[in-house]
Amino acid sequence: MRLPVCVLLTILHTSFCVDLTYYVEEGQNPGTYLGDIASDTHLMYNIPHKDRNLITFSQLQQDIPGSTQLFRVSKKTGKLYTAQMLDSEALCTRKSECFKIVEVAVKKAKAFMKILEIKVVIQDVNDHQPEFPEQTVNITFSEGDRIGMRKSIPNARDRDVGITNSQISYQLKKNVNEPFALSVSQNADGTSKLSINLEGSLDRELKDAYMIQVIAKDNGPPAKQSILNVHISVTDINDNAPIFSKKVYNVSIENEVSKMSPVAVLFARDLDSEQMGKITYHFSSQTSDTVKSHFELDKTTGEIFLRKKFTLGQQLTYALYVEATDSGSPSLSSFAKVLVNLINQENNAPTIDVNFVSASPEKMATISEDMEVGSFIAYVKVTDHDAGQNGEVNCVLHHDKFQLQSLGLKKYKITIKNPVDREVNDHHDMTINCQDKGTPPLHAESKFSIKVMDVNDVRPTFAKETYKFWIYENQEPKISVGFVNATDPDLGPGGRLTYSMLTNNKHFLPFQIADNGLISTIVSPDHEYQDIYKFQILVKDSGIPSLNNTVNVIVEIKDENDNAPYFTYPSVNPFTLDVVYYPHHSSNITILRAADSDSRENAFLKYEIAEGNDKQLFVINHYTGLLSFSRVVTQNDAGPYELKFIVKDSGTPALSATTSMLLVLTISNKTNEMLNIVPVQSDDKIHLNSAIIIVLVTVTLSVVITAFMSICILRCNDWIGTSHKDGLNPSNRCFSEQRHLMCPSYNTASLADISITGERYKARQINSKGSKCESYPEDAMDNSEKGLVSPLKPHTTTDNAHQVSIH
Prior knowledge:
Layout: E1 5-9, E2 14-18, E3 20-25, E4 33-36, H1 37-40, E5 55-59, E6 71-73, E7 79-82, H2 88-91, E8 99-108, E9 111-123, E10 136-142, E11 150-153, H3 163-166, E12 168-173, E13 180-186, E14 192-198, E15 209-218, E16 225-235, E17 243-244, E18 248-253, E19 262-265, E20 268-269, E21 279-283, H4 289-294, E22 295-297, E23 303-306, E24 317-326, E25 333-342, E26 351-356, E27 364-368, E28 376-383, E29 393-397, E30 402-408, E31 411-416, E32 427-436, E33 443-453, E34 461-462, E35 466-472, E36 480-483, E37 486-487, E38 497-502, E39 511-513, E40 518-521, E41 532-541, E42 548-558, E43 566-569, E44 575-581, E45 588-591, E46 593-596, E47 606-611, E48 618-620, E49 626-629, E50 639-648, E51 656-667, H5 688-726, H6 730-741, H7 751-754, H8 758-767, E52 773-774, H9 783-787, E53 792-794, E54 801-806
Parallel strand pairs: 3-9, 10-16, 18-25, 27-33, 35-42, 44-51, 44-54
Antiparallel strand pairs: 1-2, 4-7, 5-8, 6-7, 8-9, 11-14, 12-15, 13-14, 15-16, 17-20, 19-23, 21-24, 22-23, 24-25, 26-28, 28-31, 29-32, 30-31, 32-33, 34-37, 36-40, 38-41, 39-40, 41-42, 43-46, 45-49, 46-52, 47-50, 48-49, 50-51, 53-54
Helix pairs in contact: 5-6
């Protein structure tokens, strides 16, 4: 039992006095039962039992553009259900009670009784985790920063509206001895202000980047959390001098070495970054002028070239001292010694050195299958210290997916020539062959393998473009409708699929889909509410990024004969009808009409006279509901008739409805309602002038009538020819046109003129669309059928009585 309670909404500063209060957790499936309004309000206690079936409940529509109904009320029983899945975060503000007011109008028949205000409290569940605006943030410290330096990072927000579920606490996750701490303070709006504090010294050359994590956890049961990855970069100061790769470089050269080839290549590394790590090379003052005259140093690359040949008889070893200086302020420098030995010409095989971009074991590299054509995979350097053609080397790589491209003298790069696909081939073997131009030529080869790693590059695909299913209405919930199936050849999360239904808030779908693609009902389907549902199923994999696909689904709700027909005319039961019969005129009385909410054969109706036709005076058309006299009416037939009519549908089992009519029959002696009075001349003799006038009038009328009939005949013949061309019945068309021309043949009509055969009417009913099907809709009648039914005239003595004149 829910007692009326008044609720004061402090946020809206509005007071509502509600009749009932119900509670429901957010996230429940549509159709969740909330409560019995009729029972909880004791509304039925003061209403007689015979009138309780007249009580109806209806929810008042919200006058808000774009809003949708959150709840639905059973019209007859007054039970309250959810109309869609409720989300407190979308409906309410944070840190406040989430509720909605439902206004329900209660009527007795068509009379208004009262409006009930129902408060539905939507209880928040901890269905949202704290969320940072970004998964990763980048902050920067300098290796010269002091302890206590602080860098701000974004805070997390929890979309839950409950106070407990949205309260967030933070903690820092880092490795031991990392010099960082998390600082948390409170902002004026109640949110947290986060920052990373420096608690120790930094050395960029030892470690130039850190990855720490900030964990945000709410207090909901159960607690949920999210992680913010904080990437910390350490900027440089010029605190390192350049360092040569060797203290002493020892090289051997031929006296005939080319001036274009370097004798030696010096390499110095400065651990500082950017401009502070930029290095230039110079001969130091310790290098003799004689050596400087034979050698040239490239200050940018560190390459040493032979400037001119040595003369015979000179020394075979020369010492060069090179200084490497960085561009810092102040600049720092270091020194290396280069020993150059002159040797005789030899012929040695080249050596191949392959350096892969990706970290991998020896002779094995890994690449991703989504790498673009032309991507750099490995650097190949060939070494051959021989002089002349003995040291000239050519290298080749034969492969359909990869190619070897020259970067200069004895330097190459391996790139992707054609796209690779892990689903086709996940492993490639290749060999680089190098050969010099000496006599005899010497060669070398290097074999290695490349493994292709999987990425989520294939969308899930459905077996069909459209899935079609059908079920009967009125079945219990959780009935299986059918399966949809999708496949994905990707590995791991990229091949793990989940299904969901694409819906909008305007239309309720009585279905749900499981993880295995099984579609089932969540409420009992109703053919009269909706007979066909068209929607889409979304399938997506668990890869990063996730790929998805959709498929169309059509579910047909087949009809069952669960609605009985009902009379729409007469609209009251019993019904009184006064009929005045004029002899020699139409025997049609009136047309009964009925409707059925079912469709097809379940809504195909037949009319019968159940009682009161003992004299066999009346007959009714089973398919149109046309009530007529079955024979000639005499004065003995006058009087009241208590007729009972029944209408049945064609379902299995058949359902029916009855109505009663009190028909009061009056026989008129007149042949028409208005009779023309022709005066009779008392004199037995005819005056000569009168005779002349009569003759002239007779001749004139004869000419006019003859001309008029000739026009009718000519038009009929013309319409007959046209009707044969159009495939129409010429006699019916002529008859219809004559009626509009007021031809004499269209003065009266019989029952056969208005009757519609059962086969024609049945086809009309079965082919009609819509959830309602009237037995004889007025817009479906032929014009000739409408014209033969006498108009109803209101009776002056009673509300339920009508008078019909039969012409």
